[in-house]
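Example 4.3 (complexes with small molecules)
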Amino acid sequence: MKATARAHANIALIKYWGKRDRKLNLPAAGSISITLEALSTVTRVEFLQGLKKDRFILNGESTPVTQTERVTRFLDLIREQSGTGLCAQVTSKNNFPTGAGLASSASAFAGLALAGSRAAGLALSFPQLSELARKGSGSAARSVFGGFVEMQAGVRKDGTDAIARQIAPETYWDLRVLIAITSDTPKKTGSTEGMLHTEKTSPYFREWVRSSVSDLKEMQKAISIKDLSKLGELSEYNCLKMHALMLSARPGLIYWNENTLALIHLVRELRNTGTEAYFTIDAGPQVKVLCEPENVPAVKNALENSRQVLRIIETGLGGGAVLVKDTAL
Ligand code: DP6
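Answer. The structure with DP6 bound is encoded below.
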């Protein structure tokens, strides 16, 4: 009873920030993301006789109890569906820094959903995997698919319609993302906690949810006609709107550092001087810059010459979650 899977991280162009149901992890609004080739997690799940509790090894080390508990709660869902009573050994490896705003929970739970369900003998469809992954982490529902992906908020109470779907595969449009790492320090407030705090205290939360409907429509349109200017403008708008929302919580959530802001200006300056590039930022200080392949050298050069950047990760769009050989770990 063993399976290994690889899943990629994603970045949202239209962000998910807030839930309509905490227990089932249902998003308050839909979101749209792209799956990233260069950021991946490989996860092996092995249900074993004689294990008294689940074990979780991440990047070669045992994890703190809170992290293992989150994995156990997720495996409980798989145990419930499959009828197995066994505990599991979970071994997982990220090829990028964990907990620094690079969506490690998305690739983690998408991979865990696939490897875990297969190891338990379940053959789930992709929509079913997306539903399962969502219960681990909202953004993980999107990482089940490759390319351009939309997460639907759904309306049902049981959450069966709160799943992601692929808008277009990774081969549809060759977009590139340059991830500028500005800090390796893990963030102080995780997304789950940060969202809850925002929902509870921000006077702008309802408007954020309401206005997401037209953002989603516009983004679908921009993708369908491969309009980079529209996609980029909308990504920046939606990203800044999310950070404004976070700032309006009480006390305000500030995920940026001083380098983040400097890089926002740098990207806008690049645009003013003829290099078409756009930024987006999640719940962390890293800046992701979107552009087409011909502009990668100019963007890379500007980021490399900036004091604010520790490291750059360059990526194209990646595929969905897949089963892989055990040796991939
Ligand atoms: C800012 O999916 O990590 O990256 O569902 O509580 O696990 P939970 O939250 P998570 O939140 C991601 C927030 C974001 C925006 C996004 O990816 O859409």
